[in-house]
Write a structure and sequence with these properties.
Low-confidence stretches of chain B: 1-27
Strand order of the largest sheet of chain B: 2-1-5-3-4
Helix content of chain B: 25-40%
Structural class of chain B: alpha/beta
Number of strands of chain B: 17
Oligomer: heterotrimer
Radius of gyration of chain B: 26 Å
Shape of chain B: globular
Number of strands of chain C: 9
CATH class of the largest domain in chain C: Alpha Beta
Largest sheet of chain C: 5 strands, mixed
CATH topology of the largest domain in chain B: Rossmann fold
Number of domains of chain B: 3
Strand content of chain C: 5-15%
Order of helices and strands of chain C: HHHEHHEHEHEHHEEHEEEHHHHH
Shape of chain C: globular
Mean pLDDT of chain B: 92
Strand content of chain B: 5-15%
Structural class of chain C: alpha/beta
Mean pLDDT of chain C: 94
Chains: A alpha+beta (157), B alpha/beta (628), C alpha/beta (390)
Radius of gyration of chain C: 21 Å
CATH superfamily of the largest domain in chain C: NADH-ubiquinone oxidoreductase 51kDa subunit
């Protein structure tokens, strides 16, 4: 990480901290915002958050690794999360999964080399009546068909 | 967002949320008693007491695993479940507070089945076999398996490693394949010691205990105190054992292998051989060490006496510079530096305050540099052929002897730090029954030591020893306490403070006339943190000397001591040390003839002189808390 | 998509002026009305709401909190999403009334990370409420101060468990706490806290406006009122249905136009699987209890792969702190995979059923205690199918 990037990150975290307050209960809101903005919570960011909240870095790490939507590893700009829970599973989730893998040229759990897309499974999105469903960052897509998925991916590319 | 947490530092993990609560939250009911029925018999129990504590009092056994009396409650292993009438599911006895009349069954079909299942599940994820395990014979999982008659791996068994063993640290080895996720280490590291190296990560079946970003232990802010080892129920955490190198040296006729033993291992090693806590084994241990093959057996207390001379002088010098010369750059209060866990803690967490730390090496390291210089010269032994082993209650001593600064003699001053547990293993391996061995004395020239050096082992001991010498040095009179026992320095309170008024001083110390010498004693780094925050806030400006030990109870509770540990055990070990001190002919460091001899013969420019600065003093590293 | 057959309980013409009337009532009156109505928690556990509020109201503390549990993560549940989308005023009023009832000035909505897309709209609505003085200081001149803040989850099913949710709100890993003490005595930062489901709060708003007697005119004596069901799986009309308690599974299947149904999963992954022979069972707390999830399987479905899907879910979503849940669920999953590969003996399955029962008894929180339900019910009812094909 470049020094300028580090400084920018520190500034960002300090600003979030002044928004939310430098208390332990601000941890999840800060992490959510950092995750959304950078696509991951870097080692440096975790330590900076620990510093401003006056907690141990390992506690931040423990929290980051606990929640599925937070990642300590860098992910793509667009994180695609396909629901794999029962109703989506029964609604041909696997064919959607194949289309995603084909269109992006990666497997689940991977990130494209241009750092644009990451592909993950997720548990129930609460869209069971409109299954199969997926999230791209925070946006939700439902009633997916192979054809629609390909189209959506094309738009994001 | 508003602040509801009282204080940021006051964090408590899931486990330690306040437990005691009366029905409908009426706090006033806590303390009164209620009648409960346990296994069909009625008992009066204070409201708020846990089922486990209530049963303990009545001698009703409930198995535990994640529970540890030093730690906050977790309630995660579920081995202690009991039946509470009216509850749909079983309840964890260790966390369930008795708040009203209730009927409890500690053994029923459901309870036994559930406990057996918990053991079976833990075993199914537990790598390896007992006979090839460091904790064979002293493992809580093994004990539970035996208690519940486990005769097969009902749900399978792990025969291949899933984690690498982390050998990176000089002090602590982490083998997560043996972890049962009781979180005792997490609670030790975050709550008890407030160091914050270990925490649960991931979720569900992938949950593991690890360091920040899964880094090797040597690369994070571990202070090597080893308190996690003392509380680990299995072999997931253990000390980095150098005994095979020591055997090698012993078996090599060219090597002159000498050892020094600290007081705390001597007060505790009996526990490894089945004795109750509180039996000092000093003289039997000397015999054992010789029989194992050490060429010389010395007493670390000699170096502790030396430390008192050096550290006491350093303090008086600081006081003089401050009071007489008005030197504003003098850092007071002076902090002790004999606990390597504490030293690394301050290097990581309060690097800007390192100047307050005494520059004295710990007794172990002072001894090491003298052995490879003074001792080698006097006995005409090539220091390159001397192997120095320090028998310590401490895992941080292993790191300390490997610090690059610790080579004042031109060699590695102390080659190996060996813990009490590891020494017990060597003794067993040599086929010796320690308690049955005849007593023998230490070797000269470092054989005789004072009781002051001895009590270093318990929290407050360094302070007491220093006062015995410093007071006498400046007044010409012995300390004004009965039998030299300075009770204000003793006991297991987290932070103690007291003062001694200095009057009627010798002319050369007249500048201290009327000074109320204020001192403070803390043990465990959580208490050290409190002291450092006081220092930061300027609340310690009128204090002069502060003793800090990294481990709860001081060295007798060190990370290298026999397992298990508890408040009661630590008290008994301390008692053994104080009793031994009371029975010694010399109880003040400055009266130790060997100490005087070495200042006459070798460290001829006196305490804190040029030569002792080279050999007996050190400097510290500003490590800081963050990794990148 | 709003509630498909909403008639009474969640009217689309909800009169948002009821709040001022309701706030004129004393806290005791509100709690009395809720207790009278017999409303039980809609999240699944079914704890009587009035009792919970009464406990929190009786607790003495300088601060109290109301938390709306919008961490709807149970597979097959999506009714809270619909409530938050189309019936938000009722939810917000319900939370406000909860605050009034227990004497809290602060409410939180813990919104699951998956519903982040709603965040902006919820925040705008709350801002609008504040500007209309329906939230904030001295609400509508009643002298009652109350605000609501939204907290976003980050993808963890366990945070639907109330004490794990509170841990998460405090900035920790979402690991369930030891209980007692219960949140009504020691909740958010150890202050008395009520945690209720979105649907519970929405129901409260309606009960306060229409009265307990009206509410009790629906449902059964032990399960008064109506319930929202999230129906998905093999049916023509999936969606959210408002049904009175006491409706049986057969009637429900007809309502949603499900055909050739083999089994119905009531209560999501942590619920039970009912075979055809039990379709006369009723949706109610005393019989087939559910937080709202109904998943329908037709004749073509392989029940073992259904079970595997549920089991994988629990292995991942367990918080991992207690032994029975962390390791037990993995052993059940291993068992399912063994069956798949035709390598599992009947006696080992018996062993696992036994393990499942211990998990129900000995796990630390509701997740672990209910996780083996699917395994036990599917193996019990479909043993022949599961083993015959392998």
């Amino acid at each position: 990480m470049l020094l300028s990037e580090k400084n920018a990150m520190t500034e960002e975290i300090e600003e979030l901290c002044s928004n939310y307050g430098s208390y332990r209960e601000s941890l999840l809101p800060i992490l959510n915002d950092i995750q959304l903005r950078f696509g991951y919570v870097s080692e440096f960011a975790q330590q900076e958050i620990a510093r401003v909240l006056d907690i141990h870095p390992v506690e931040v790490y423990g929290v980051v690794t606990f929640y599925s939507f937070l990642s300590p590893k860098r992910l793509g700009k667009y994180i695609i999360r396909l629901c794999r829970t029962i109703s989506c599973d029964m609604a041909e989730k696997s064919s959607i999964a194949r289309v995603l893998e084909r269109e992006l040229g990666i497997r689940f759990g991977e990130t494209t080399s241009d750092m644009k897309f990451s592909l993950e499974y997720t548990n129930c999105l609460g869209m069971c009546d409109e299954s199969p469903a997926m999230l791209i960052n925070e946006q939700v897509f439902t009633k997916l068909t192979p054809h629609r998925v390909a189209e959506i991916i094309r738009k994001y590319k | 967002m508003m602040e509801y947490s009282k204080k940021n530092g006051d964090r408590a993990p899931v486990a330690s949320k306040p437990l005691k609560v009366a029905p409908h939250g009426l706090e006033s009911d806590i303390g009164s008693k209620v009648e409960v029925e346990i296994n069909g018999k009625a008992y009066k129990v204070p409201i708020g007491m846990t089922i486990l504590d209530a049963c303990k009092k009545q001698n009703i056994h409930i198995p535990t695993l994640c529970y540890h009396e030093d730690l906050c409650l977790a309630g995660v292993c579920r081995i202690c479940v009991v039946e509470v009438e009216g509850m749909r599911s079983l309840q964890a006895a260790c966390t369930y507070p008795i708040t009203n009349r209730m009927k409890i069954k500690t053994s029923s079909e459901q309870v036994r089945k559930a406990r057996r299942h918990v053991i079976d599940l833990l075993l199914s994820e537990h790598y390896g076999e007992c006979y090839s395990c460091h904790r064979n014979g002293n493992c809580e999982l093994q004990k539970l398996s035996k208690e519940y008659g486990v005769d097969s791996y009902r749900f399978g068994h792990v025969i291949e490693r899933r984690h690498n063993v982390d050998h990176s640290s000089y002090s602590v080895v982490r083998d997560m394949d043996k972890c049962v996720l009781c979180k005792r280490c997490v609670r030790t590291c975050i709550d008890l010691q407030e160091v914050g190296v270990l925490e649960s990560t991931n979720r569900g079946y992938d949950t593991t205990i690890t360091t920040f970003n899964d880094l090797p232990l040597a690369e994070v802010i571990c202070i090597n105190c080893g308190q996690c080892i003392n509380r680990c129920p299995t072999a997931a955490l253990r000390a980095n054992d150098p005994s095979h190198f020591i055997w090698e040296a012993i078996d090599n006729p060219k090597k002159h292998v000498v050892c020094q033993t600290a007081p705390s291992p001597r007060a505790a090693i009996g526990e490894e051989f089945g004795l109750a806590p509180g039996h000092s084994m000093t003289k039997q241990l000397n015999t054992a060490l010789r029989m194992i093959g050490f060429d010389r057996v010395f007493d670390t207390n000699f170096a502790a006496d030396l430390t008192i001379m050096e550290e006491g002088t350093e303090l008086l010098l600081r006081l003089k510079r401050s009071l007489v010369n008005g030197d504003k750059s003098v850092h007071l209060p002076q902090f002790t530096s004999c606990s390597p866990g504490w030293v690394k803690y301050i290097e990581h967490f309060y690097p800007e305050y390192l100047d307050y730390l005494s520059s004295c090496k710990s007794p172990q390291q002072m001894f090491g540099s003298l052995l490879k210089t003074f001792y080698a010269e006097e006995h005409n032994i090539d220091p390159a052929e001397i192997v120095t082993v320090a028998i310590m209650p401490c895992s941080a001593k292993k790191f300390e002897c490997n610090r690059p600064e610790m080579t004042a003699s031109g060699f590695k001053d102390v080659d190996f730090g060996l813990t009490t547990r590891e020494l017990a293993q060597m003794i067993r391996e040599a086929g010796l029954r320690l308690p049955e061995l005849p007593p023998s004395n230490f070797d000269d020239p470092f054989g005789e030591a004072s009781g002051a050096g001895l009590i270093f082992g318990a929290t407050g001991g360094v302070m007491e020893a220093a006062l015995r010498t410093a007071y006498e040095l400046v007044t010409g009179r012995t300390v004004p306490f009965e039998n030299l026992n300075i009770e204000a320095c003793r006991g297991m309170e987290g932070i103690k403070q007291a003062s001694v008024l200095l009057t009627g001083l010798k002319p050369e110390w007249a500048f201290l006339e009327g000074v109320n010498l204020k001192f403070m004693i803390a043990h465990g780094t959580a208490n050290a943190k409190k002291v450092m925050e006081m220092l930061k806030a300027g609340e310690l400006a009128d204090f002069h000397f502060i003793e800090i030990m990294g481990c709860p109870g001081g060295c007798i509770g060190g990370g290298g001591q026999p397992i298990p540990t508890s408040g009661e055990i630590r008290k008994l070990r301390a008692k053994a040390i104080y009793e031994e001190d009371a029975g010694l002919p010399i109880r003040k460091s400055h009266e130790n003839p060997n100490v005087n001899y070495i200042y006459e013969k070798f460290l001829t420019d006196g305490p804190c002189g040029h030569k002792s600065h080279k050999l007996l003093h050190t400097h510290y590293v500003k490590r800081g808390k963050y990794i990148v | 998509m709003p509630i498909i057959n909403n008639k009474e309980l969640f009217p689309t013409d909800y009169n948002d002026r009821i709040l001022i009337e309701a706030l004129k009532k004393t806290p005791q009156d509100i709690i009395y009305e809720i207790r009278e109505s017999g409303l039980k928690g809609r999240g699944g556990a079914g704890f009587p709401t009035g009792t919970k509020w009464n406990l929190a109201s009786a607790a003495v503390a300088e601060k109290k909190f109301v938390v709306c549990n919008a961490d709807e993560g149970e597979p097959g549940t999506f009714k809270d999403r619909v409530l938050l989308t189309d019936y938000l005023p009722m939810v917000i009023d319900g939370i406000t009334l909860g605050g009034r009832a227990i004497g809290a000035q602060k409410g939180y909505i813990y919104l699951r990370g998956e519903y982040r897309y709603m965040l902006g709209r919820l925040e705008n609505y709350i801002a609008q409420m504040i500007s209309e003085n329906r939230l904030g200081n001295n609400i509508l001149g009643t002298g009652f101060d109350f605000t609501i803040e939204i907290r976003l989850g980050a993808g963890a099913y366990i945070c639907g468990e109330e004490s794990a949710l509170i841990e998460s709100m405090e900035g920790h890993r979402g690991e369930a706490r030891n209980r007692p003490p219960f949140p009504v005595n020691r909740g958010y930062f150890c202050y008395p806290t009520i945690v209720n489901n979105v649907e519970t709060f929405a129901s409260v708003a309606v009960i306060i406006s229409k009265g307990a007697d009206w509410f009790k005119s629906f449902g059964t004596s032990k399960s008064p009122g109506k319930k929202l069901l999230s129906v998905s799986g093999d049916c023509r009309k999936p969606g959210v249905y408002e049904v009175p308690f006491g409706i049986n599974v057969k009637e429900l299947l007809k309502l949603v136009d499900a055909r050739k149904t083999k089994a119905v999963q009531i209560g999501g992954a942590s619920g039970y699987c009912l075979p055809r022979s039990q379709f006369d069972r009723t949706i109610s707390f005393e019989d087939a209890s559910t937080g709202g999830s109904v998943i329908i399987f037709n004749q073509t479905r392989d029940m073992l792969s259904v079970l595997k899907n549920f089991q994988e879910f629990f292995v991942e979503e367990s918080c991992g702190q207690c032994t029975p849940c962390r390791v037990g669920n993995k052993k059940l999953l291993d068992g399912v995979e063994k069956i798949e590969q035709g390598e599992c003996s009947i006696s080992y399955i018996r062993e696992l059923m036994d393990l499942g029962r211990s998990m129900q008894m000995a796990s630390k929180c509701g997740l672990g205690q209910s996780a083996p339900n699917s395994f036990i019910s599917i193996v019990t009812h479909f043993e022949n199918e599961i083993f015959s094909s392998r």
